[in-house]
Structures are given as structure tokens and as C-alpha cells.
Amino acid sequence: MNKQWTVLLPEPIEEEARKLLDEAGLQVIQSPDKTPATVASLMEEADAVVLRTGIKMTAELLAQGKRLKMVSRTGAGFDNVDIEAATAQGVIVSSSLGANTTTVAEHALALILALYKHLPTLDSETKKGNFKIRYAYLPRDMREKTLGVIGCGRIGQTIAKACHDSFGMKIIAYDEFLPKAVQESLASWIEFTSLDDLCARSDVVTMHVPLTEGTRGLINATRLALMKKDAVIVNTSRGGVIDEEALATALKEGKLGGAGLDVFEDEPPKAGHPLFSCENAILTPHAAALTQECVVRMAVLGSQRVIDLAQGFNPGNVANPEVLKQQRWEYLKSKA
Fold first, then answer.
1. What pLDDT digit, counting tens, does each position of 74-93 carry?
2. Which of these is catalytic: 16, 144, 267, 279?
């Protein structure tokens, strides 16, 4: 262990994760705030950064890290790290991939059920004294309906399995990156199809894709027009993969049954966002993974990967594996 390693925290992390770094003998620097200027002034001392979501690790910030060896994300995504710049600088970027799988799946399922059972409307009307709303027969059965999964990785498969096994739903999926061998292994209960076909056939659509140039605006006005008028769509992946203006228009014009969004193109969404006035939209503040248990789990894993690297081990969950081919990382061992 190199006891001279210094770990920079642009934002506070959970006590359990901070304690792990202290007990491993690493020096920890807590930034007084998360502004780029303040964090930049501390980067020169950092061997590693444990990064949450409040600041983006840009090429400019990375360039200030003359000793920087690693950026360890507490979350699963890398949207707030310039991967290309990190790789060019020989910096390993790693994340807590998989740590939030069941947590996010639970949130997505909660949104699906709330929309399909019209829980916000039933709650509101009951509180107004309109008990007769029960005779409007707003809720629908999910049994034997079709679930469309866009992005069939860990989270997508978890939701699909729950809906298939518990509700007898038919599962169709679209995932251009999932290896053919994996698709074939799931073929007994998941039908893989085109995105347009999925939109047209699904009663419920759930999205689990990263935000890239290829996925930005993946669900646009054209694809929304393909969907059933009573279909619902849920997005717990990344803002920007749905055209929010087009979604709001479809909801207001009665061309879609409902939408549940935990993520937005701009976060937080600005006042007057078109979805705010959609009664058939349920919106949550990018909180799908933020349970009491999950935030601790992700932060602990983020700290542990820094410790592993400091001890000479490959930290795992590396977003830029090509960086490991560089000479500076030839000595890394695999952790048993």
C-alpha cells in the first residue's frame, strides 16, 4: 500500500465509505464545495477522485490532476466523466456497476404499477371525497399484457423477469448492444425485435439505455406515434433518451396513456417544463437509486475500488479497459 495516496472528494460521501478510506491509510481531502473552480484547485494533490453526480470531471479538470490515477464513480454511469480525456491521460475510470440493479428495478416497477393502476388519480379523488371514482374502472390488469424493454441489461432483465414471472406478461426487447449469445440464452421467454416493432406492440415500455449520440432522442415524436393510445412509458435510465417536448404533446393530446420519468434532459428541470402540467405523468427527481441502503452500497464500493488500485489490484468495472494496456498499469494483479 502506498500510504501517500490522496483521495479527493468533490462532494461528501457516506460515513461508511469515508471510514473505509481512512482505515486503509489513505489521505482524504474533502472539497469545501463542488464548483469546478474549487475542485480544480485541489486536483493537483489527488491520486484518486471518488465522484458522485454533482460535478462533471471534464478534460480541463482531469488535466489539473498531475498525479491522478483513478476516477471512481459511486454510481453506475459515466455521463459526468470525460472518458476519452481520462484514457489519454492514463487515468482509470471505474464505477459501481450493478450495485443499484434491484434498487432501480424496484423504482421502475413502482412507476409502472402506479401508472397502470392510476394510483395518483385514485388517491387525489379519494382525498377530495369522490369515493365513486372506483366505478370509473380506471386501473387495468397487467397480466398477459406486453412489456417492451429498451436496453436488456441487468436492470432491464430484472424488471422483465419480475413482470414475466409475477404477472404473466409477454416480454419483447430491443438491445442493439446485447451479444447474440446472450439474446439466444433469453430466447425462451424474451422476444428480441426492432425498436419500431416494440413501440407498436407494447402496452408498457421501460427504458434502460445509456445516453450516447446514438440514443439521444431515441423515443421521438415518430416513435411515440407508433405506440398504443393507452400504453405507458417509463424511463429510469438517462434524460435525453426521450424527446420530452414530444412526450408532453402526446400525453396532452391523449395519444399516450401515461409516462413515468425519473430522469430529465436538464436536471433539475426548469420551471414551466411541459411535463409538469401533464396529469398522466409521474415525475421523480433522479432518485431511483437513492435508497438509504443503495447510496451506502455504491459509495462503499467506490471507495473500495480506490483501495484496491492503491494495493496494486485491478479495481474492476473499468469503463475504459484500453487504459489498462498502458505501461503504467502493467503491474496490476487480479483480485482473487
1. 988 888 999 999 999 999 99
2. 267
Alpha helices in 229-291, H assignment, sequence order: 244-252
What's the number of domains the chain is made of?
Answer: 2
What is the maximal distance between C-alpha atoms in the chain?
A: 72
Whether 1 is in a domain gets the answer: no
In a domain, 191, yes or no: yes
What does the alpha-carbon distance between residue 336 and residue 334 come to, in Å, rounded to a whole number? 6
Q: What b/e string do you get for 77-110 counting C-beta neighbours within 10 Å, with b at 16 or more?
A: bbebbbbebbbebebbbbbbbebbbbbbbbbbbb
Q: Is 286 a catalytic site residue?
A: yes
Is residue 134 among the annotated active site residues? no
From the candidates 118, 238, 297, 305, give the one annotated as an active-site residue.
238
User: Which tens digit of pLDDT belongs to each residue from 145-202?
Assistant: 999 999 999 999 999 999 999 999 999 999 999 999 999 999 999 999 999 999 999 9
**Do 150 and 208 share a structural domain?**
yes
For residues 44 and 84, state if they share a domain: yes
Active site residue 238: yes
Quote the domain boundaries for residue 213: 101-283
Task: Identify whether 336 is part of a domain.
Answer: no
